[in-house]
Amino acid sequence: MVAERHLALARSRDNRLRLAHLRIFSMLMDGPLRAVHIAARLAATKQTVGPVIDELVAWNYLTRTVDPRDRRARILDFTDEGRDLVDALVSLADEMEDEWRALLGPDVLETCRTALWRIIDSQNPLSP
Fold first, then answer.
1. Which of 18, 37, 60, 71 is the most exposed place for a label (fewest CB within 10 A)?
2. Does residue 73 contact residue 34 with C-beta atoms inside 8 Å?
3. The domain spanning residue 71 has which CATH number?
């Protein structure tokens, strides 16, 4: 349900976008990263995420610049167009959370959120 609404919003702007692209966007929410770090966070290989990243760069959603700490490496970040799309996706997430809060109440919503994060963390191979 959540992914479908986000994908519908993204596709209303660009029908080439897929869930794989949105997963890359989510990895860059806290700032620029190397492709290898994005792959690790997604429990994927660089070879798997590479073509998806290449599309986002070609479509002007991401930039690829030289990492000043290692000139052989490249850093990925949002372009203005990419940031605009991500801002719209974040706004949609906020609207959905407001809907759930109105439906469930703040305490039940927080209990649900805590339970879901425990489940997610238990399935994440990178969790402690």
1. 71
2. yes
3. 1.10.10.10
Amino acid type, 42: L
Is there a domain that residue 40 lies in?
yes
pTM: 0.84
DSSP H stretches of helix in 18-79:
19-27, 35-41, 46-58
- Whether 126 is covered by a domain: the verdict is no
Task: Name the 3-class secondary structure at 76.
Answer: strand
pLDDT tens for each residue of 1-25: 889 999 999 999 999 999 999 999 9
Residue 110 is assigned to a structural domain of this protein: no
Domain range for 13 is 2-103
pLDDT-based confidence at 126, cuts 50/70/90? Answer: low
